[in-house]
Amino acid sequence: MPSVETIYQESVMPLPVSDQVRLAEMIMERAPKGTSPKRRSALEIIEAARAVTPRRTAAEIDEYIRTERDSWDD
Questions:
Q1: CA-CA-CA-CA torsion sign (7, 13, 19, 21)
Q2: Residues 6+ apart with CB under 8 A from 54
Q3: For a surface tag, which of 2, 45, 48, 51 has the fewest beta carbons within 10 Å of its beta carbon?
């Protein structure tokens, strides 16, 4: 089984920040009460996700959106 770090890097980091936050929320909902050493606000979670999310240029974002739109026509 791959390590947690590998799963994070390969599966979580590529997700949009909103999906990363949702995933974190889902995990925390299943965690037994009292297992988290510190409760973080949603803002702290978003900021932490942004810190590890690769920055993209406007051209890269435009290309991604264009590719997505083109896939709708298939």
A1: positive
A2: 13
A3: 51
The pLDDT tens digits of the residues spanning 16-66 come to 999 999 998 898 888 787 665 677 888 888 888 777 777 778 898 899 899
Q: How many CA atoms lie within 13 A of 19 on its CB side?
A: 8
The beta strand positions in 1-74, using DSSP E, are none
Domain boundaries in the chain?
Answer: 4-72
53-67 pLDDT per residue, tens = 777 788 988 998 999
What is the gyration radius of the CA atoms in the chain, in angstroms? 16
Residue 37 has φ and ψ, to the nearest 5°, of -65, -30
pTM for this prediction: 0.43
